[in-house]
Write a structure and sequence with these properties.
The chain is of the alpha/beta class. It has one domain: Aromatic compound dioxygenase (Protocatechuate 3,4-Dioxygenase, subunit A), CATH 2.60.130.10. It has helices spanning 12-24, 28-32, 184-189; strands spanning 74-83, 93-97, 122-126, 132-138, 149-155, 161-168, 191-192, 194-196, 205-208, 211-213. The longest helix is centred in the first third of the chain and has 13 residues, at 12-24. It is globular.
Length: 214
């Protein structure tokens, strides 16, 4: 599992918790109570893997048996899986899949484009006791009809599930058929701010994306 990095700026949900704690010293569950709305669901899309690759760890930038690393800007992507009560959901399975630097999905019959065989395309992480997950991947890129995005599917042992997508705040959104049916509020909640992460590696970015389950 990719080790979580604690220097990334707190996500909006974490900032709200810290402010609440500073103001009144509430425990985490109380600070979040009645104020965490579930993360909006989004379509799984046509490119969920038709077969799960043998190498599906949380580092999508290096495929077992490939000497070359993936093309693209490195992205350290992490966050928390929480309930609407604010409690962390430990042991939750988080699946991530996305296209490679050429805009091509792997393991899904996405043909007719150049392909980066050094990119894993799909990975799985499991949340720790704090509900935290972490991936090393590449900054998502746009392809025909879609703005840059990451696909996510979350499952807990209690049976809660969510399929959604994470977007890059500040990227153009015009003409995306998935976003065209989303409200501005939903888009805001599904967007992440990317920041330089030189402590991880030169030229890398980091993004935080907390997920709230019903």
């Amino acid at each position: 599992m990719i080790a979580p990095h604690r220097d990334v700026l707190p996500s909006p949900l974490r900032r709200r918790l810290l402010l609440a704690l500073a103001a009144g010293g509430f425990p985490a569950a109380t600070a979040f109570a009645a104020e965490l709305a579930p993360t909006p669901a989004q379509t799984e899309g046509p490119f969920y893997p038709t077969r799960i690759p043998a190498d599906h760890d949380a580092d999508l930038t290096q495929v077992a048996g490939q000497s070359a690393p993936a093309q693209g800007t490195r992205l350290y992507f992490s966050g928390h899986v929480l309930g609407t009560d604010g409690r962390p959901r430990r042991g939750a399975t988080v699946e991530l899949w996305q296209c490679d630097a050429f805009g091509r999905y792997h393991h899904a019959g996405d043909e007719g484009k150049p392909r980066d065989d050094a990119f894993q395309g799909y990975g799985v992480a499991v949340t720790d006791n704090e509900g935290r997950y972490a991936f090393k991947t590449i900054r998502p890129v746009a392809y025909s009809g879609r703005v840059p995005h990451l696909h996510l599917k979350v499952r807990t042992a209690e049976g809660a599930t969510l399929t959604t997508q994470a977007y890059v705040k500040g990227d153009p959104t015009n003409g995306d058929p998935v976003l065209s049916g989303s409200s501005a509020a939903s888009y805001e909640r599904l967007s992440m701010t990317l920041a330089p992460a030189p402590a991880r590696e030169a030229g890398a970015l980091a993004g935080e994306f907390d997920i709230v389950l019903r």
